[in-house]
Write a structure and sequence with these properties.
With 95 residues, this protein is mostly helical. The chain has a domain at 42-95. Helices cover 74% and strands 0% of the residues. The protein contains three helices and no strands. Helix 1 (17-38) packs across helix 3 and helix 2 (42-65) packs antiparallel against helix 3 (69-92). It is elongated and about 75 Å long.
Length: 95
């Protein structure tokens, strides 16, 4: 009697490409909004990035000292806003 063939479980590909594309699109859209709000002024963009880095670092410190869902949410928000501002600088530089 022939052996029964085992079912193969499909493997998930790490980091679904369509999901990454959507994340990049959302990041670019937010960066373009920042560019429009600042008029593409490099000094203002750099100032925003510095402020957001401080906010992110402060949120990281708070989340480390007192871990909670709220602290994690604040850290993620600050990190996302920083990434958007950094992307705005890259877009203004033409990258």
């Amino acid at each position: 009697m022939p052996r029964r063939q085992q079912r193969r479980v499909p493997r998930r590909i790490k980091g679904d490409r369509s999901e990454r594309r959507e994340d990049t699109s959302a990041l670019d859209a937010s960066a373009r909004r920042i560019l429009a709000a600042t008029g593409g002024d490099a000094r203002q963009l750099n100032s925003i990035v510095l402020d957001l880095r401080q906010l992110r670092d402060e949120a990281d410190r708070r989340a480390f000292e007192d871990p909670s869902p709220d602290a994690l949410r604040e850290y993620r928000r600050a990190a996302r806003e920083l990434a958007e501002a950094e992307r705005a600088i890259a877009l203004s530089d033409g990258h």
